[in-house]
Amino acid sequence: MYSFQFGNQTIPYTLSTSHRRKTLSISVDQHGVAVISPSHVDREKVEMILHNKAVWIIKQLSDFEEMNKTFTERSFLSGEKLPYLGRHYRLKVMKKDSDEAIFRFYQGRFVAELPKGISEEEHRDLLLPLYVDWIKQRGNQYAQDRIKRFTLKLQKEPNTIIIKDQGQRWGSCTPSGNILLNWRIFLAPTSMIDYVLAHELVHLKHMNHSKEYWETLRMLLPDYEQRKEWLRLNGGTLNV
What we know:
Layout: E1 2-6, E2 9-18, E3 25-29, E4 32-38, H1 43-52, H2 54-70, E5 81-84, E6 87-96, E7 102-106, E8 109-115, H3 123-146, H4 148-154, E9 160-164, E10 171-173, E11 178-182, H5 190-202, H6 211-220, H7 224-234
Parallel strand pairs: 2-4, 6-8, 9-11
Antiparallel strand pairs: 1-2, 3-4, 5-6, 7-8, 10-11
């Protein structure tokens, strides 16, 4: 972890290098500032560029800090609401004479069954993995159906779609033609899922972010810039 000074503010950042990059990349999200630099650029030059971009960086950090204040970690107790496809559904937890934890969606709400001896403090540890598995399974089928509207226009389709924990990335496209999606994107409104699906699908045609890439994405989603901005500003709240 490195840092640079702007006025009386110290701004930390991570730095990685790539011999493939020709220009310096700066990204800001809920985790902080990340820089990817061409291998030949020294750190003094990197920090000069960061200093020139400092006002923008501070604004992005402030936006994400505000988002983090609005996020409350769920305890998976009865009455809490859990997100899926941009909506929130109430959770009902029942205790049963069983050794198995069960999680499902039934009649417009999430329903969980837990062994009687489980305390409320243990709910999250037991139910979060089941909830994530549910999101992955439902999300995969949803993505398979949803992507068809784009594959027909683009005349390209992925070998497979895989839902997993992508860390800081919403999606990625592998050289072998697979699309990987972060399970958290299925907590967002459907328009954001469309954006990530289209974004990765276009990489099957353009494995870069060239002018041709963005023109193709605009053909699929004329308003992709507004969707991209929504995800940048609200992505930190897509969690449980």
